[in-house]
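Sample 3 of the quickstart, ligand nicotinamide-adenine-dinucleotide:
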Amino acid sequence: MTTIEHWIGGEFTAGSGGRRGPVFNPATGQQQHEVVLASEADVDAAVSAARIAFQTWSQASLSRRTKVLFNFRELVNANVAALAEMISDEHGKVLSDAAGEVQRGLEVIEFACGIPHLLKGEYSDQASTGVDVFSFREPLGVCAGITPFNFPAMVPMWMYPVAIACGNTFVLKPSERDPSASNFIAGLWREAGLPDGVFNVVHGDKVAVDALLRHPDVAAVSFVGSTPIARYIHQQASATGKRVQALGGAKNHAIILPDADLEFAANHLSAAAFGSAGERCMAISAAVAVGAAADPLMDLVSRKAADVVVGAGRDPRSEMGPVVTAAAKQRIESLIGSGETQGAKLLVDGRGLTVPGYENGFFVGPTVLDHVQPTMDVYTEEIFGPVLSVVRADDVDSAIDLINSNPYGNGTAIFTSSGEAARRFQRGVRVGMIGINVPIPVPMAYYSFGGWKDSLFGDKHIHGPEGVSFYTRAKVVTSRWPHVTTTADASLHFPTSS
Ligand code: NAD
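Result:
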């Protein structure tokens, strides 16, 4: 069993905490590693390394930063398969899904490669006679990222490529359940030429998180995780004067209208509900079947749910892997039971699934509950498992009202062939990311990602233009130059930047 250590100032260290946590392989149910859990002193060491590195990295030219980012992009691209295996072994998701998350993370790195363009300021010539006004943006300092288990590569990549490209240094506190990908990434950054101390990884739990929130040298905190912790992070970081964006949990609804292509809708609904065992913040966990769509849709979705091949993430035949821990499996199965007890109709039951050869794995099969009422636990809770709850509605307006009554507002989708209904939906729902015949509308890296209501605390969405804005602050210069004569050395070679 290997010990997964912190990466601080360009070195692996076990730190001073002494505490350790288990890292399981969800397919086998066996512990495969232990991870060190940081003490306050370990966090302080990481922040100090980042603070020192900031002095030089913040002064590195755009050309130099861009070269490192391009190198890093090439290295991540060359290591997609290795990362996917690491992710699959600790998270449980199937290899193709794990490779997909790395690909979506790569897109943020590619976006950050364009940082010279993104950081161009504004210029007003002759704002007043002889006076020019211009603006530019500077990095903040040490930025912290606290990330969830469900995307161990992609979600941190929503943060650090942009933060580092902007000239900040970074301390990442990944999920303690699947920590290996972050250490692997640290090695790629070093190989790409990033100076030691610019990117640091501290592993840990609440102790590490609280130390980051309290630390006076942490300028900004990006968090992605569940809503109660997101709310806590936002409050604590704000109270200590930090810039903070805290993305929370979700209950994403898809409306299916009777005029939709129901076969298409059922296919996509099934993929969005059961892909990654439902452990995606953009998973569709609630379907709102409108009017005559409901009965035929339930037939189709139930068939597709029953056909999903569940198995170990490393098995190329598997379409869906296990959930992350034994506790997650137990919680999901108990919620399915509560749905049945509270009156929902259990069309497909994923409890008690055994995968041959992986009898101790944390598997739950795809589950479909029909006739769910908004008061039931399966509707009010974020289940974060392969469970699709189906609510029936009379028309598109009552379906929109249902979405708007929900405390979450991360993503939502509509399946329809009516442009009029789609437009009413896109304008009427109070949700941050909207799909029209697209069930998982995760924005491209050059847009920003973020929900509304209890799915995001703070102002700025993550990555894209809002990410650049989050990780920088503006200066506006008003300048006047009396007439002067200057002499400067000039070279005859073709000008290049340095
Ligand atoms: P989580 O909230 O349990 O953990 C997230 C991070 O917070 C981890 O690094 C963890 O170590 C830390 N943490 C946990 N408990 C803490 C505490 N009491 N005090 C301080 N820090 C604490 O979330 P998770 O189970 O790892 O991930 C799943 C959740 O993340 C789901 O709710 C999902 O919807 C959400 N999520 C949201 C998005 C989004 O973009 N909105 C994306 C991915 C995941």
